[in-house]
Design goal:
By secondary structure, the chain is an alpha/beta fold. It folds into two domains: about 110 residues, Glutaredoxin; about 110 residues, Glutathione S-transferase Yfyf (Class Pi), Chain A, domain 2. It contains nine helices and five strands. A five-stranded mixed sheet has the order 4-3-1-2-5, with helices on one face. Helix 1 runs parallel beside helix 2 and helix 1 packs across helix 8. The longest helix is centred in the middle third of the chain and has 25 residues. It is globular, with a radius of gyration of 18 Å. The two termini are about 15 Å apart.
């Protein structure tokens, strides 16, 4: 069977993995997980016992969890179209960039997501949003500096899984409406460049349940129930 990406909505960090799969141009399917619906489907615990997205079921039936693990797996596919050979300086640079995005940049939005999910206590919510704004501003400033003289976010000559992951996270800066990303011109330029990419437009349409055109080899959605026989025990 083709690999399956389990992606979360709304605004899941799995967005970047959809973009990477489109760029990779190898057959794949998607399984949608509504993150705000509780409890999550019981079957999903066989894919990820922590009930987090994304997760990835490889063609040989192995379950991969954590964005970095999934993206590095994809980077090794298709003649390393989106990555580099392990042990090379380029591989180390990609790893460094990807891990910064997955740790510091991702974590910068933590307070904002907590505030987003709060149902009451507007005063506490505003404090969290201000803390989040400060952390996101610092992270955007750092990335803006990196992108000042880079075409792609890892500093290489081609797009990689790091660019796919970047666009999935960077859009949160606008989603939470805590700062003006245009104040970070290089960050903003890179985000806009990626947004103009058909793969990013497709991932956005998929999240919003709109009609999207795949330029890759997307073979459609599949449900957890349809996958039950091949899920890890």
């Amino acid at each position: 069977m083709e690999p399956v990406l389990f992606y979360g909505v709304p605004q899941g960090c799995s967005f970047g993995s959809i973009v990477a799969l489109e760029w990779l141009n190898l057959p794949y399917r998607l399984c949608r997980i509504e993150m705000l619906e509780h409890p999550w489907p019981a079957l999903y615990a066989r894919v990820n016992p922590l009930n987090l997205t994304p997760a990835y079921l490889t063609a040989d039936g192995r379950a991969l969890r954590e964005s970095t693990a999934i993206l590095l797996h994809l980077a090794s596919q298709g003649d390393m179209k989106l990555g580099y050979a392990q042990g090379t300086p380029e591989y180390d640079r990609l790893n460094q960039t990807l891990l910064y995005l997955n740790t510091d940049f991702f974590a910068a939005f933590g307070h904002l997501w907590i505030a987003y999910e709060m149902k009451s206590d507007p005063e506490k919510k505003e404090v969290l949003r201000e803390l989040g704004r400060q952390r996101v501003a610092a992270a955007c400033a750092h990335l803006d500096g990196l992108l000042a003289d880079r075409e792609w976010i890892d500093g290489g000559s081609k797009r990689t899984v790091a660019d796919a992951y970047f666009v999935g996270l960077a859009r949160w800066a606008e989603y939470h409406r805590v700062l003006d990303v245009e104040k970070y011109p290089h960050f903003h330029r890179h985000l806009q460049k990626l947004r103009d990419d058909p793969a990013v437009a497709f991932a956005d349409a998929i999240e919003k349940k709109k009609e999207g055109v795949s330029r890759g080899k997307f073979l459609g959605h599949v449900t957890l129930e349809e996958l039950e026989a091949v899920l890890p025990g």
